[in-house]
Amino acid sequence: MKWYNVQNSKMPTKPKHSKPEKETKEEREVDIGSIHEELEVPVSSEVVFRKIWTIRKFTKSISKRDFVDSPEFRCSVNGVGTFWNISIRFWKGPNGKKVTNPVVVCLNLTGCETEETGQARVRFQFGVWDASIKHWECCAISNVVLNLENKKNLLSVGYKSLGILDRHMDQSKDVKIMVKLQIIHSDEEVHSLSRDMARLMDKDSIEKDTLIECENDNEENGTNSITVHSWIIRMRSAKLGSKLLEYKNEKNKHIKYKLDFSCYSHNLIYELVRYIYTDKVDNAETYASHLLPLSTKYKMPGLTGLCERTLLETLTPGNVASILLLADENGCENLRKAALHYCEESEEIKGCIHTGKTLAWRVMEMVNPDLFLEACESIGSSSSNIDSTGSWSE
Questions:
Q1: Is 56 exposed, middle or buried (0-12, 13-18, 19+ CB in 10 A)?
Q2: Looking at residues 138-167, what average pLDDT do you find?
């Protein structure tokens, strides 16, 4: 093989007095056509779209307008294309004038392209960027069922009222609003493994041989029960399976085992059972802090991860202390580190610790002083500034 000798070669030089050739229209238009993204996945329900809308000079922008709309964006998966935008609308005060804080953030379906019409469940979640600590503050997840068909009509899917504070504005006074979108086709849900397992969970069957006793949510005293399959319990959690007690039930001769969760609410244990069967939890934001201790106690790492992700998405200056304490108590190092990182550079959290306004910080200082000092160090405070004899009311 002959190597090209760079040192001895002479690079071509541009003529000094040559006139530039006139460019044609085709040469000036380097980019031809357009490209859009379309996903192909085995199960579209596993895809979560995340779209971020940056609003330049937020306060100035909204003061001059009666409404604000984002550019349209497309979510296309497995041949079904949906078009959306985010919009901001305003409440009106008693005098009829618009209120610029809080604002109403809306999610709108602007059109759909599909070969086959049908229903789909849409899960969406709004968030606003906290520029001071570089973290998303997320709202609760919402669900709505839509009919997807070829049309270009505007349809408002849902809205949330968001307060935009100084911490949400970056140095350029811009604000970032996020929406997460998940589009789940009805026929896909019907034939999924998760859905089949949910039907197995709900179906009364002689194969259900285990009784779970839990607290009755509707009565002050008394218990409620859930029947499950012992083989599923053992398969999903060996630790929980070891807690199965032999049991005879005169009313149901098929029952062979019992699990005692009488000190936990029925709704909470039902969500634990739902996860065991389907890998999913309904209203995770409500139950995550209660399910996390159960997941670590019975060694269910998948549920632990789900709870950690949910709690991370719902971190606020008001709840970070209780989440940090929860993470430390249950040995969730990733959540613990994330909560400590959230505390950094937050003047609002620093103010809570210095003034002693928040009950959760007082509790942490009393029950876990080492963790409290670590949190103080992460926000630049070397020692406790809370008077322990103060009021316990928030």
A1: exposed
A2: 89
Whether the CB-CB separation of 162 and 126 falls below 8 Å is answered with yes
Q: Phi and psi dihedrals of 69, rounded to 5?
A: -120, 140
- The neighbour count for residue 250, using CB atoms within 10 Å, is 6
d(Cα 246, Cα 87) in Å, to the nearest integer?
Answer: 58
Which positions ≥6 away from 225 have C-beta within 8 Å? 211, 212, 213, 214
DSSP 16: T
Please check whether residue 109 is in contact with residue 84, taking contact to mean a CB–CB distance below 8 angstroms.
Answer: yes
Three-state helix/strand/coil letters over 238-282:
HHHHCCCEECCCCCCCCCCEEEEEEEEEHHHHHHHHHHHHHCCCC
Give me the residue label for tokens 């996860």. Answer: 275
Q: Which of 40-49, 58-67, 382-391 reaches the highest mean pLDDT?
A: 58-67
Q: What does the pLDDT read at residue 29?
A: 56
Buried b (16+ CB within 10 A) or exposed e, 181-191: bbbbbeebbee
- pLDDT, tens digit, for every residue of 229-280? 999 999 999 999 999 998 887 777 888 999 999 999 999 999 999 999 999 8
Q: Are 75 and 88 in contact (CB under 8 A)?
A: no
Q: Residue 99 has which token pair? A: 């209120």
CA 286 to chain centre: 12
Strand (E) or helix (H) holding 3: none
Length of the chain: 394
Sheet containing 223-228: which strands, arranged edge to edge? 223-228, 210-215, 257-265, 245-246
Please state the rounded mean pLDDT for residues 346-369. 70
Given 3-state DSSP classes, what are the helix, strand and coil percentages for the chain, each rounded to the nearest 5?
35, 30, 40
CA angle centred on 226, ends 207 and 222, rounded to 5°: 145
Please give the model's pTM, rounded to 2 decimal places.
0.63
Averaged pLDDT, 61-79: 90
With 50 as the cut, is the pLDDT of residue 323 above it? yes
